[in-house]
Amino acid sequence: MADEVNDDAHQKNSGANTSVADNKINRLFGLTVPFDVLSVLLGFIVISGGLVGYLKAGSIPSLVAGLVFGILIFIGSYFSSRDATNVYPLLVTCVILFGLMAWRFLKSYKFMPAGLVASLSGIMILRYIYILVLNRST
C-alpha cells in the first residue's frame, strides 16, 4: 500500500516536472534547438551593423555600440539557452537598444540603420514578453 502511494506521488511529481522542463527548452517553429536562434541572429545583425557603420563612415561609436550590444545579446542568449525562461538580460538589452535606435530614427527619419534595428529590437521585446507571460501562466 505504501509503495502504491509513493508511486502515485512520484508520477504526480514527474508529471509536474516535465511540464516545467518543457518550458525550459528552446523551440523554433516547433523544432527543439540547443540555443536561442533568433537572439543569436539578432546579435550577429547588431555586430554586423556596427562593423558596416565603421567601415562605411569611419564611425567608432557605431563600432563600439554594435560590439557592446551584440556581445550583451550573445550573453543573454547564453543564459536563455541554459533556461529558455530566463530572458531578462535579453529583454533589458533590447529595451535599451530599442530606445536608442528609435530616438535616432525619430531624429533622422532614415530607416537604415536606426529604423531597422529599432524594428527588430521591438519585435524581440514582444517575443521576450510573450515568453515571460507564457511561463507565468504555467
UniProtKB/TrEMBL annotation:
An example GO biological process term is: regulation of heme biosynthetic process
Do the record's keywords include Transmembrane?
yes
- Cell location: Membrane
UniProt xrefs under Pfam families: Tmemb_14
Source domain of life is Eukaryota
Arranged from A to Z, the UniProt key words for this protein are: Membrane, Transmembrane, Transmembrane helix
Q: What is this protein called?
A: Transmembrane protein 14C
